[in-house]
Amino acid sequence: TRVTGPMAALGVVVVGCGRMGTIHACNLARLPGVQVVAVVDPVPAATEALGAKLREMGSDPACYGELTAEVFAAHPGIFAVAITTTSSAHLPAILASAAAGKHIFVEKPVCATVSEAQACLAAVEAAKVVLQVGFMRRYDSDFAEVQRIVAAGGVGKVQMVRVRSFDGFKQPTEYYRSSGGLYLDMACHDLDMARFISGLEVESVVVNGSVTVDPAFADFGDIDTSTISLKFANGALGVVENLRFATYGHDTQVEVVGSLGSVASGPNAQRTVRHA
């Protein structure tokens, strides 16, 4: 949707009032010309807490327990919906938003299963609305610079890609239990980044995973440590390294090696791009 000229504030609904919902809602509230008009969560205390925080910032959101047609009818100025719930709740929120003709931002992953994601894609295409997935690392200035250098031919033909993501913050066990697992919840960022910085599609995948940090992961069939070996369409190879928790702190890195040189970024701090 293209918006030009003077206009009323764009209304946004935030669905999911946990940690990420709070971050997104507060960021939206700081933007000029944007109002968070409603917050949605099945836990009343969560909507009330986020609502109070947003009122301190100048928004005055209504609080709801479920995203329904009545929410959209009550707030005709809604322009978009930001969905930050657990993965299992993405599907109904996306379908409801598309049915109302609203643009959608959804935290990764799109949904918990491929069939659900396909249903969402069909819904947004039919409604002619935008659905953006929250792969925020594409907008990291260093990672974007790595991608620019590779796309410009700065390393020649891509031969090797490495992506590392070690989380420096250990979440409560219940978060991991309901997250969908390491690959759906965490490694999806890194698989997206491998494709983004290389400009290549993946043809084959080999995975190794184990529990090395917290035995509780085994209780619900998950892992906390993983390597993913990739083979790209041009024959290049890649590896994705994931740890749910690294004792020394958060660690994100990317590296691309090619026939003319290499480019890398990380760990973490900005302006760490090295091109050789």
Explain what the structure shows.
This protein has 276 residues and is α/β, with parallel strands linked by helices. The chain is 33% helix and 28% strand. The strands form 2 sheets. Strands 8-9-10-7-11-12-13 form a 7-stranded mixed beta sheet, with helices on one face. Helix 4 runs parallel beside helix 5 (114-127) and helix 6 packs across helix 8. It is globular, with a radius of gyration of 20 Å.
End-to-end Cα distance, whole Å, is 41 Å
| Estimated helix fraction | 25-40%
What order do the SSEs take from the amino end to the carboxyl end, as H and E? EHEHEHEHEHEHEHHEHEEEEE
Oligomer: single chain
Radius of gyration, CA atoms, in whole angstroms: 20 Å
Q: Report mean pLDDT, rounded to a whole number.
A: 93
Strand order across the biggest sheet?
A: 8-9-10-7-11-12-13
- Runs in which pLDDT lies below 50 for 5 or more consecutive residues are none
Question: Helix- and strand-based class?
Answer: alpha/beta
Let me know the number of strands. Answer: 13
Tally of individual helices:
9
Overall 3D form: globular
**Main β-sheet, in a few words?**
7 strands, mixed
| Beta-strand percent range | 25-35%
